[in-house]
């Protein structure tokens, strides 16, 4: 089973395999692929902040 999400130039892909998850993160500045075995999944969390310069510029313009 594969789950893809493409939003604002950011791409996330989760591919569920028999023994783990193949995780891919890609945007303008990074392209990272990592395989995580099910035994190694913990309760750790990671935060990824989307970067959209267009929204930032409109917000600054609106505030001015």
Write up this protein:
The chain has 64 residues and is of the alpha+beta class. Helices cover 17% and strands 42% of the residues. The chain has 1 helix and 4 strands. Strands 1-2-3-4 form a 4-stranded antiparallel β-sheet, with no helix packed on it. The chain starts with a strand and ends with a helix.
Helix content: 10-25%
- Overall average residue pLDDT: 80
Strand ordering within the main sheet: 1-2-3-4
Total helix count?
1
- How many strand segments? 4
Summarize the structure.
The protein is 17% helix and 42% strand. It is α+β, with helices and mostly antiparallel strands.
How would you summarize the topology of this molecule?
Layout: E1 2-7, E2 10-16, E3 20-26, E4 31-37, H1 53-63
Antiparallel strand pairs: 1-2, 2-3, 3-4
Comma- or semicolon-separated keywords:
four-stranded antiparallel β-sheet, 4 strands, single chain, alpha+beta, 64 residues, 17% helix, 42% strand, 1 helix, elongated
């Amino acid at each position: 089973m594969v789950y893809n999400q493409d939003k604002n130039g950011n791409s996330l892909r989760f591919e569920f395999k028999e023994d783990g998850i193949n995780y891919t993160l890609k945007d303008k500045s990074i392209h990272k692929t990592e395989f995580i075995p099910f035994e190694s999944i913990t309760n750790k969390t990671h935060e990824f902040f989307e970067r959209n310069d267009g929204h930032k510029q409109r917000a600054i313009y609106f505030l001015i």
